[in-house]
Every structure is written in C-alpha cells, then in structure tokens.
Amino acid sequence: MQLYLIRHAIAVRSDSPVVTADGERALTEVGIKKMRNVARALVRMGVTFDVVLTSPLIRARQTAEIVCDVLKCPDRIEPCDALAPGCDIDLLADVLRKYESANAVALVGHNPDFEALAADLIGGSHQTGILFKKGGICRIDLDRIDPQPAGGLIWHMTPKLLRMIAG
After folding, report:
1. DSSP assignment string, 101-135
2. CA distance 133 to 161
3. Whole-angstrom Cα distance, residue 111 to residue 57?
4. Quick one: how far is CA 1 from the chain centroid?
5. pLDDT tens figures, 73-114
6. What is the C-alpha to C-alpha distance for residues 134 and 11, in angstroms, rounded to an integer?
7. How far is Cα 167 from Cα 162, in angstroms, rounded to an integer?
8. What's the CA gap between 78 and 84, in Å, rounded?
9. What pLDDT, in 10s, does the model give residues 33-86?
C-alpha cells in the first residue's frame, strides 16, 4: 500500500481572537492558496488516492477537500476520528486494517503526530528528523500492516518544493 501523510495547510493561529477551540481553526486564505498549488504538484506527479482519510478538525478537513478537489476525487474523503491530535501507531494500524486492499491511502492530519508516525513506520526513532511543514507530504510504501505497520520512505517533500513542481 502507498501511504501518503499530508499535514494540514496553514491555519488561523490558536491565539487568534476568532478561535474559541483548537478544532475550530480554519485554513487561512494563504493556506488555501498554497495547498491548491501543493495539490497541483500531486497531479503533475501522477498521484491518485483510493481513499483520503482526514482528521475531524476543520483545518485537516479543509486540506483534504482542497486536495480532492484538485485531484478530482471529492467522493473519496472519509472522516477518521483516529487522526485527531494524539494519533499513534496503534491507532493508525487499526485504521489501515480496514483499507488493506487499497493501493493508495492518504491521511490528512497533524504534527507532532505525523513526524512520530513517519518515524515509526520506517523503523526510526522520533528523533529521525522527518519534519512536516504545514502542507508537507510524504509517501511511505507499506510492506505490512500487522502486527505493526512498517515500510520504506519513498519520498518526503516540503510544501515549497511541491509548489515548485506545480509550476
């Protein structure tokens, strides 16, 4: 399985006066624009998804919607409570078992979870150094899901590099 970890795009700051709860933090106009360009890079790279699972937080859901709009697969978005902040490798394994037959699964979520998950998935430590900027993406090809998901890092790109690919 090709597993894509997509960190949500730039959102309203948590200390903004319009924010009363972390889950209400929406993407900024800049975040929306930059994420559209990131998604265009995925199109140029020939990336497709069988399913896009997203954290229930609004900034992640909006990021998933942008990606699926640009990739023309809005019907493939599914909310996934396990991807809310606090997701770990055990929660992820439970989710992935439901999609074992899928070729390409995208997960849209948060840091520091994705940095830790990426390290766990490739057998590194949490100090491995896979950094996820907002809108950053990595692809890990999973060799197995049980007993614990594991695979190899195929690529990891910053949003800036992805926007350069988009042209």
Report:
1. T-SEEEEEE-TTHHHHHHHHHTT--TTS-----TT
2. 11
3. 13
4. 15
5. 999 999 999 999 999 999 999 999 999 999 999 999 999 999
6. 9
7. 9
8. 13
9. 999 999 999 999 999 999 999 999 999 999 999 999 999 999 999 999 999 999
What is the architecture of the domain spanning 2-166? Answer: 3-Layer(aba) Sandwich (3.40)
> How far apart, in whole angstroms, are the C-alpha atoms of residue 31 and residue 135?
8
Amino acid at 124: G
Using CA atoms, how far apart are residues 122 and 128, in angstroms rounded to an integer?
10
Q: Is the pTM of this model over 0.85?
A: yes
CA angle 121, 26, 66 (to 5 degrees): 65
Q: Please report how many Cα atoms fall inside a 13 Å half-sphere around the Cα of residue 101, on the Cβ side.
A: 0
Residue 130 CB coordination number (10 Å) = 20
Query: At 6, is the secondary structure helix, strand, or coil?
Result: strand
User: Of 44, 10, 1, which Cα lies nearest the Cα of 161?
Assistant: 44
Spatial distance between the Cα atoms of 27 and 33, rounded to a whole number of angstroms = 10
- pLDDT value, residue 13: 86
156 contacts: CB under 8 Å, gap ≥ 6: 118, 130, 136, 137, 138, 139
Distance from C-alpha of 105 to C-alpha of 99, rounded to nearest angstrom? 8
